[in-house]
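Workshop exercise sheet. Pairs work together: one partner reads the sequence aloud, the other fills in the structure field after running the prediction. Swap roles for the next sheet.
Pair: D.N. / O.F.
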Amino acid sequence: MTAQRVETLERYGTNEVLARTIADPAARDAALRRQAAAWAREFDPNSLLALRKASVVFDAECDFAKIRARVLYVLSRTDKLFPPSLAPGVMDQLKKAGIQATYFEIDTELGHVASGPEWAKWGPTLRTFLEGLPQ
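Structure field:
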């Protein structure tokens, strides 16, 4: 579980996040492995099976017609889990379902974990989106 989590954290961009505060590659690797080990001690391995099944079976597009809220769709330029190449198709499907949607791409090297550490890059877009909602 620890090795799997290390690989996942690396793919998500955690190494790049840690590089902002830990210059030494060996210390950064140790910090990443500590995070992975802590997660592995607490996470139920059977949950991974459920998550995998859900990712293969679940299709949100069939429920787009049920959405009544406006949507702000935010992705990271370097996200490998939800790459920006998905955005045109998703935005098209949202439009076809009659949903008012806005897309924003975070210009970052932090991959899947970018939304937190890079809040300042997309925060103004979120503010504008929220201010534009009906009162």
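Discussion prompt: The chain has two domains: 2-54, 59-131. What would you look at next?
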